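Amino Acid Chain and Its Fold in Token Form
===========================================
Structure side: the spatial fold of the chain, written down as a series of whole-number tokens.
Position: the record begins directly beneath this header, with no further notes in between.
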Amino acid sequence: MTLPLAVAGHPALELCNTRAGWGDAEPREYLGTYADLAVWARELGLLSPAVTRRLLRDAATDPVTATEVLERTRALRSDLYAALTSPAAPPAALRRLTTELADAATSVQLQHGPEGLRLARDDESLAAPLRAVADATRQLVEDGLSTDVGRCPGAGCGWLFLRNGRSRRWCIMAICGNRAKARRHAERQRSAQSA
């Protein structure tokens, strides 16, 4: 299991970054299975280790529900990405996003603790990771942070991140930024050699 680096600065944006290469013919998918989703949520502090262990056991005995939750989470991710990156997000995507966020608001709340964001109560249903990230998405919007989201222009990337008022351009300068610099340098070298 390979999980993406946490570079966004907010769990809702980290969800969008569980896919790389937005718009590419073959994007990279980090949430291939329900287990990937549960472990990713645990690593972000959205689920406790004990709840994650229970969810993984439950997913093994109810793979149909686990798959449904995974698909709903991926749909939330796509709708959120569209809403954050397009000034004219499709109305259907906004309606689906609104519905998912309303469901999260009535079922699970996040709280800040010494170890970061945590569920205010242990939700043991298989939908716990979806509800936790939907609630984080609601908080992103309520806190007004959705206006300060940047999109990495790196080839095969498209990851989102909070700019925090800075002029941040890349998800990770050492990766996407350096690749772009190397590409530009190689292009200049080829142009100089062909001239």
Notes: The CA atoms of residues 43 and 49 lie 9 Å apart.
